[in-house]
Specification:
This protein has 304 residues and is an alpha/beta fold. The protein has nine helices and twelve strands. The protein has two domains: 130 residues; 147 residues, 3-Layer(aba) Sandwich (Rossmann fold). The strands form two sheets. A six-stranded parallel sheet has the order 2-1-3-4-5-6, with helices on one face.
Length: 304
């Protein structure tokens, strides 16, 4: 049995857990390791997180990075022999602050990422290894189908990504509903998006299950730097929503090894109307379930 500490950097309260995908990945990994009879603690950035710092962990695993986390460096100091790991599926994030502090004290760490190190902001000279796996599939967890739900329209949601600006202008118009933070409205509009803006998705309640389609676009950088299929693909599967892919994502589709045919690919939002009635390919659920189990087993082999 190993003693493992998992650290997520998102803010919340001790009992009010953060509602984000990184924390979910951390919790999924925690539950899986516990099922294998390991002793696992999961902490994140809540005000009392440092009130009772434990020691002698065999491994410390960071999920996500923030320079504003409440988690103190003493967690690492109290486990000087722990192996260190950084799980990241965001190429535009560097190291967590206290992991950087450890690196400056000559402690190396292993990166487990969705992508190759050449596009990352992580400083490679402090890493001992760079391993690649599909972290995004960890959130695959289909909700029970609600046959009474009336599906309507196509939705795009998420943060503003400058590297997608051309696609926001191309695809986000009156054919697509846009769910975003209010603070990002001006950014989308400046990029040329004219979609109707709706309230943010409530992932605690109904998520995106009321929509027929979810629009899938990606950063320009990802066209040539494979980053696996994004979380939004697995979210669509979870809620029974058919994903429609911008044609610019063809290389990612090919490398994903999912059987995504031309029926699911669009070059204009005008094409969405002609996709009505198109449903999820059942083989995607089979592959996603297998992927998730394989990734959990892979992470365990690395960490344990």
């Amino acid at each position: 049995m190993k003693r493992i500490l998992i650290i997520d950097s998102h803010k919340g309260t001790k009992h009010g857990i953060p509602q984000n995908l990184h924390w979910q990945n951390a919790n999924i990994l925690k539950d899986y390791l516990i099922s294998l009879n390991h002793e696992v603690d999961l902490i994140w950035s809540y005000p009392t997180v440092n009130d009772s710092i434990k020691c002698d962990y065999d491994a410390i695993v960071f999920v996500h990075a923030s320079h504003y986390s409440f988690v103190d460096y003493k967690w690492l100091e109290q486990s000087p022999n722990a192996k260190l790991y950084y799980i990241t599926n965001e190429y535009n994030l560097g190291e967590p602050r206290i992991l950087w502090m450890a690196a400056k004290q000559n402690r190396k760490y292993t990166v487990i990422a969705n992508y190759e190190g050449k596009i990352s902001k992580v400083v490679r000279k402090y890493t001992s290894d760079w391993l690649i796996t599909n972290l995004n599939c960890l959130i695959y967890n289909p909700t029970p189908e609600n046959l009474d739900t009336t599906k309507k329209g196509c939705i795009y949601y998420g943060s503003f990504r400058k590297d997608r600006s051309d696609y926001f202008k191309k695809y986000l118009n009156d054919k697509v509903l846009l769910s975003i933070y209010s603070k990002n409205v001006s950014k989308f509009k400046e990029a040329g998006a004219t979609s109707e803006i709706i309230k943010r998705i409530d992932w605690v309640k109904d998520g995106i299950k009321e929509y027929e389609f979810s629009l899938y676009i990606e950063d320009v950088r990802n066209h040539e730097n494979y980053n696996h299929l994004a979380n939004r693909f697995y979210e669509a599967l979870n809620y029974g929503v058919t994903p429609l892919f911008a044609e610019e994502c063809l290389n990612t589709i090919k490398l994903s090894d999912y059987n995504i045919g031309v029926d699911y690919i669009i070059n204009s939002s005008d094409e969405i109307w002609y996709k009505r009635g198109l449903t999820i390919n059942p083989s995607w659920h089979i592959k996603a379930k297998e992927e998730k189990q394989a990734v959990l087993q892979y992470l365990t082999e690395i960490i344990i």
